[in-house]
Amino acid sequence: MTTPLPEEPVVPADKPLGGPANGAAAPAVSDATVDPAAGANATSVPETTVQTVEEQVVLQRSVRYPRLMITGLVVGAVLGAIVTLFFPVSDDYTIWQVMGFIALVGATLGLALGAVLALILDKIVSRKRGTATAVRIITHDAD
To answer: Which residues, 6 or more positions from 101, have their beta carbon under 8 angstroms from its beta carbon?
Structure first.
């Protein structure tokens, strides 16, 4: 069984629309007059005014350094471990010791190469900038 959705308040066309910036419901605006004889039971609804401001903003893409560095670290460690399998191991160390050491060296080199790649990509991407129009909506409650 479905429950009916509540109806949205109808706002006259000559009244401004808008509400608080935090997403809360805006007070309903109506043309009804309050009867002074109603006394304390009468409530007044403050009107909300909405102001829009258009601003030019600069858009610039950026490189995510941690992602490239972590990717380089993982790729370097895996390649270092795989390279170990292609070379003979001496009797002084086990295959796992050699693989771990070479994986650490590969991870360090991969981290450094990932950082250098991030710096190069950042220089390339920072050349491309764009502009856009941002619309800021400001609401004021009449007190």
So the answer is: none
